[in-house]
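QUALITY CONTROL LOG
STEP: pairwise intake check
CHECKER ROLE: data steward
CRITERIA: each record must contain a sequence immediately followed by its structure tokens, with no blank fields

ENTRY 1 OF 2
RESULT FIELD BELOW
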Amino acid sequence: MNFYMLADRDNWVNSPINSRGELTETCEAVKTTVRLMNTIPSFDSLHVEQNIGVLYYRPYAREAFIAHENPGKLEGNLLGEAYQHFKQTYARLIEANINAGIYDPEIHSEKLPWFSILFAPGNRYMDAKTQQKLLDYIEQGGNLFCLPGIPCRDWDGAAVKILHDAFVNHDMHDFNGWKSAQIGKGRLIEVTNMYFDGVFLTRLLKTLSLSLAVTSSDPRVKTTLLKGQNEWVYFMVNTTEETMKVEISFYGIIQDSLIDGLSPDCRLEINDGIALLEIDPHSVKVFWRNMQAGL
């Protein structure tokens, strides 16, 4: 959140302060957010807990931009299709209530952020430097999912098979929907079918023995965890137009009582790892634990 659009300008409307200096109906959301920031001691140092990431490879986005005005194919591949694979993959993760992080090799130039799982949607083209980064990630313990296949060429058409050769030179195992090879401490997985849903993702997490920190019985109620030095802060977002009654499951918590970040006198009780939550349409609930105080 920033305050760049706190007041109306020439090119946007409905800001918390209008052009006459008057408060609007959206000001209440800003007040609520600031109150939450002041309630949680380490709010400014919170970072989102993300075990799953998606590769954002800029050459695919540039190709899609060019193909928008000049559609065509290259060696049977539809130009811009790889970028559509990225958008589809990220959208399906969000639909399944998985708050995936983004890995951009041009921003994270030195070290790949740590994800237990990294989806790499694309096509057969990827430069050697990026392929090597991804292979290093696998060897250090990461699980890389290439879909719908493993890249094997550079952008000039030359063969660059860093990932491909690592894949075929190790023992492969067939699962229902993907092929996997153990490489170093991690795995390279090829998923040839671009369509996957919540069932696929649930099976995937179970296969890799990975559990999400907080989940909802209905994926339309989005959940995520932010961690600070002493605080764990859980956000629950109802994306629907109806009041939702859901079960919220917490990994690693059996019994606890979480503080309501917007109504500190209220608590969310967790029993056997599950809390019952009723949340209004298009609204947000925030709960937090003070680890230092044992709350």
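ENTRY 2 OF 2
RESULT FIELD BELOW
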Amino acid sequence: MKKWLVALTLGLTAVAQAQEKDYSTIVNPFIGTGGHGHTYPGPSMPFGMVQLSPDTRLKGWDGCSGYHYSDSIIYGFSHTHLSGTGIEDYCDILLMPTTGKYEWNNEKYASPFSHKNEKAHAGFYSVKLDKYNVLASLTATKRVGLHKYEFASGAKEGNVLLDLYHRDIVKDPA
């Protein structure tokens, strides 16, 4: 009886210690964002209503999630993405921080970025937009996407563009 009690105690202790490990620290959100993986690195919650992420590609099968690791341009940050679908869909409600005179053409307001200034871990994404010298950070709750834009001190007039025509074709705008 004592051996059984000792084994049970050791087993429960091992289970309790295993549950203390934070597995989110070993998640790499960039897995599947290159090649034909069709995933995005931005934050989302399980069964959440939003899936924030940068949009780096407007067309093509390899960019159907909105992001492809081989790209070096960001068009903005949209609130809905699908991973692994193999079909272009969503990438709706795009926000893009800019400085100076703004343009309503996504080819013109897009910004180059470097992967060395890009960070992602479970529930968080950030990148520096080189064209505007803006640090963009994203996180998500179950129902809301949160953006934080840090404009450089002394920056020209700051803007946040809301582009509802981004990527998806509006069939009847009336």
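INTAKE CHECK: passed for both entries
DESCRIPTIVE NOTE, ENTRY 2: The longest helix spans residues 2-19.
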